[in-house]
Write a structure and sequence with these properties.
Shape: globular
Bound molecules: zinc ion
Largest sheet: 5 strands, mixed
Strand content: 15-25%
Distance between the termini: 38 Å
Structural class: alpha/beta
Helix content: 40-55%
Radius of gyration: 15 Å
Length: about 160
């Protein structure tokens, strides 16, 4: 795991966004996009706040960063391992480096990211793990909805 000098600010921004989301009653996942220590955009999961199923933290950060002709040299930060949706955006836009807070609550798509040449760095931050764990325990339906577990097809007796 290789953390760079600028990673502290990038990750702190993502964690701050996750906490903002928690305060709004949303899924507490925060993200940011930085280039050489300069913030290009930050965002948080807003699927509850906006009623938007694609408003994941990473997508929100990319939206807020606006259009770019190149993502070379950028790093995407996320408090949680990126899902298939966000991994798709990372690969599509050619983001080469992703720094992740934790992977305990959700394994994400590290294998896919790495197979496409993306450097994945996991901080293993207990603050991010606790934030997500607390939310998932108190809001199991919202959490399953966020990670794409089809609740109509899952057996409620299990
Ligand atoms: Zn996602």
């Amino acid at each position: 795991m290789t953390l760079h000098e600028h990673d502290r600010a990038g990750y702190a921004t993502a964690l701050g966004q996750a906490r903002l989301g928690a305060g709004e009653g949303g899924v507490p996942i925060g993200s940011s996009l930085f280039e050489n220590g300069v913030m290009l955009g930050a965002g948080r999961n807003r699927r509850v706040q906006n009623g938007d199923p694609t408003a994941h933290g990473e997508i929100d950060a990319l939206r807020n960063a606006g259009r770019r002709t190149s993502y070379a040299g950028t790093t995407l930060y996320s408090t949680l391992a990126p899902c298939a949706l966000c991994t798709g955006a990372i690969i599509l836009f050619g983001i080469r480096r992703v720094v992740v807070g934790e992977e305990k609550n959700f394994p994400g798509e590290f294998e896919l990211l790495r197979s496409r040449g993306v450097e994945v760095v996991v901080i293993d931050d207990p603050k991010a793990t606790a934030l997500m764990e607390d939310f998932a325990t108190r809001n199991p339906e919202l959490w399953n909805e966020d990670i794409g577990v089809d609740q109509a097809q899952s057996d409620p007796r299990q």
